[in-house]
Amino acid sequence: MPYQVPEPKIFACTQSMELGQKIAKSYGTDLGKVLFSRYSDGEFQPSFEESIRGTRIFIIGSTHPGPENLMEMLLMIDAAKRASARHITAVMPYFGWARQDRKDKPRVPIAAKLVAKMLETAGATRIITMDLHADQIQGFFEKPVDHLFASTLFLPYLEKLKLKNLTIASPDMGGSKRAYAYSKALSSDVVICYKQRAKANKISHMELIGEVKDRNVVLVDDMVDTAGTLTKAADLMMERGALSVRAITTHGLLSGNAYERIQKSKLQELIITDSIPTHAKSDKIKVLSCADLFADVMHRVHHNTSIASKFIM
Q1: Is the peptide bond before 241 cis (omega within 30 degrees of 0)?
Q2: Rounded Cα distance, 131 and 148, in Å
Q3: Which fold has domain 9-148?
Q4: What percent of the chain has pLDDT over 90?
Q5: Distance separating alpha carbons of residues 57 and 38, to the nearest angstrom
Q6: pLDDT tens digit string along 104-144?
Q7: Most CB atoms within 10 A, among 41, 116, 293, 311?
Q8: What is the pLDDT of residues 59-110, one digit of tens each?
Q9: Ranges of each domain in the chain
């Protein structure tokens, strides 16, 4: 009797349990059972409560701060390896620590490289993620990386808005490639913000390269943290005569005073995905789910079919 490859099993880390349930439902299955035991000093231990021997498993978990989220993913992978899983795919909608992708000054770590090596050492055989902070992070891995783009979610949403005199904007020079890709897809103009930072999360000066007068502007970025850059850019563009300013950012970290800044800013709307758990505290924030995207790609990976159609950008 020919050997039949068993169907994959899907598990989720605690920080991504809600998204994991959505992905599993879209895939057409239920989340696998994992027991998380915790000691009184804070140490924790995941335990798979069903056999995974010889199967492909997907472990869903974004690794946004704090560090427990990354540690949980690593322990889940290690446990799966020791339980003889056939393939272990780390599904990381948000790949944390990615802003540290190079040495931008002496005596600092390259955390993104370190995280990549830790995931491989733990036992991950494949990585599926979305909108990395820097594309070159894929090269930090020796295992296959499927780097998805949230543009597959955002572009249909923008097209439904039917905005006239549309201009795509990047809030900084580093995001210009992303902005040009969106502008090409939407046949729109592009403007770039040039910013100088006094320190991390603190902007000292911002200038606008391009014309936004009488334009509907959409800012494009991979993440929104304190929302300082986005809100400052939106206010600047409205001062320069823009008709409206929206922002689309894949990962909604939304730390510190982000919600307050967004609410007080001249941003008409902020559209994010649910790659990171968020409890929208502003009526300006709209969340698009990435569950169907990841479920589709996971199905294609398991059945060895192409995922090229998911790479719009």
Answers
A1: no
A2: 6
A3: Rossmann fold (3.40.50)
A4: 85
A5: 24
A6: 899 999 999 999 999 999 999 999 999 999 999 999 999 99
A7: 116
A8: 999 999 889 999 999 999 999 999 999 999 999 999 999 999 999 899 999 9
A9: 9-148, 151-289
Complete DSSP assignment for 90-144: EEESS-TTTT--S-SSTT---HHHHHHHHHHHHT-SEEEEES-SSGGGGGG-SS-
Strands of the sheet with 9-12, listed across from one edge:
9-12, 56-60, 87-92, 126-130, 145-148
Please tell me the distance from the alpha carbon of residue 230 to that of residue 227, in angstroms, as a whole number: 5
- Give the residue from 155, 153, 129 showing the smallest Cα distance to 143: 129
CATH class label, 151-289: alpha beta
* Ramachandran angles phi, psi of 144, nearest 5°: -65, 140
What residues does 189 pair with on adjacent strands? 167
The predicted model gives 51-59 an average pLDDT of 96
Residues with active-site annotation: 195
Same fold, 9-148 and 151-289: yes
Q: Which two tokens stand for residue 281?
A: 């505290």
